[in-house]
Write a structure and sequence with these properties.
Layout: H1 13-29, E1 37-40, E2 47-49, H2 53-58, H3 65-69, H4 76-87, E3 96-98, H5 100-107, E4 113-117, H6 121-131, E5 137-140, H7 144-147, E6 159-163, H8 171-186, E7 191-198, H9 202-214, E8 219-225, E9 238-244, H10 250-255, H11 258-265, E10 272-278
Helix pairs in contact: 1-4, 1-5, 8-9
Bound molecules: S-adenosylmethionine.
S-adenosylmethionine binds at residues 2, 4, 6, 18, 40, 42-44, 99-100, 117-120, 123, 143-145, 164-166.
């Protein structure tokens, strides 16, 4: 059963990190004329109301995107990301938050392609209504772990895969590894961007090390820790982004931004970041 709805979490600190990195990766891809394919294995609804009852229930975006929205001193990569969120809010106020497909839609060129997977029937219906008829876009009501193999290698031999599961059960951790292992055999040169939650679970703690082992040609790992888990060890302390075959510029870009994000999004004195890489 799929209980997870991203609308509860849209625009939170994890989305800020995830979408900051996604924007940087897609901007880098846009640096060459040759078209590429963007694959989103867990696409969500595409965009979210921040005024709806889901987002309002916990107000997670108030400790995420809302803390960046009014700032006039954003470092350049964050200003770039926030400018896309502004583009998604043409009325001027922060009322909606773009999901990863919307961010990709704003950045991809007419010759690039999008393959979006979403399993939840309601999220899929919203996503399909939003992007399903756009040129170059295919929206599939299917399992993204399984469906990924059919999208690789892209005909143009350039591609970015975002893998952003909900990790509802522990099964997703193993599926991330298995589907990426297969994907890398089909398309070793692809850029693979994986989000994971910083929660008190062995599977989550081990995931980066398991991903490193899959990526002989180079990887980058960024983690932003903003909160303490509660007394029972529950709660999202932060999140990580693991990038296989990262743009060579990504490490320096994030090195200039993550300390700033710790200051602005940190919810306790122990807030911190990690940035590590093994270059190609
Ligand atoms: N990537 C989105 C973004 O950044 O805006 C958010 C995605 S949300 C974290 C995860 C989504 O994956 C949920 O909408 C959930 O319904 C969907 N989902 C869960 N299991 C899936 C699977 N096996 N294949 C495709 N979608 C799945």
């Amino acid at each position: 059963m799929l209980a997870y709805r991203h609308a509860f979490h849209a625009g939170n600190h994890a989305d800020v990190l995830k979408h900051l990195v996604l924007v940087q990766v897609l901007r880098y891809m846009n640096g060459k004329d040759k078209p590429y394919r963007y694959v989103d294995t867990h696409a969500g609804a595409g965009g979210y109301s921040l005024e709806g009852r889901y987002a309002q229930k916990k107000g997670e975006y108030e400790r995420g995107i809302a803390l960046l929205w009014e700032r006039d001193d954003l470092p350049e990569p964050l200003a770039d990301y926030v400018s896309l969120v502004r583009q998604f809010n043409p009325q001027g106020a922060l009322e909606q938050y773009p999901g990863s497909p919307a961010i990709a839609q704003m950045l991809l060129r007419p010759t690039d392609q999008m393959r979006l997977f979403e399993l939840h029937p309601t999220e899929h219906r919203i996503l399909d209504a939003y992007l399903g008829k756009q040129r170059g876009v295919e929206v599939r009501h299917a399992d993204g772990f399984d469906g990924l193999k059919g999208t690789l290698p892209p005909t143009t031999r350039r591609g970015v895969v975002l893998m952003d599961p909900s990790y509802e059960g522990n099964g997703d951790y193993g599926k991330v590894i298995a589907s990426l292992r297969d994907a890398l055999q089909r398309f070793a040169e692809g850029v693979y961007v994986i989000w994971y939650p910083q929660v008190q679970k062995v599977e989550a703690a081990e995931l980066p090390r398991r991903l490193e082992a899959l990526a002989p040609k180079g990887w980058l790992h960024a983690r932003l820790t903003v909160a303490k888990p509660d007394s029972l060890g529950f709660g999202l302390a932060g999140s990580g982004m693991f990038v296989i075959n990262p743009p060579y510029t990504l490490h320096d870009t994030l090195a200039g931004v993550l300390p700033w994000l710790v200051e602005v999004l940190g919810q306790y004195d122990g807030a911190n970041y990690l940035l590590d890489q093994r270059p190609a």
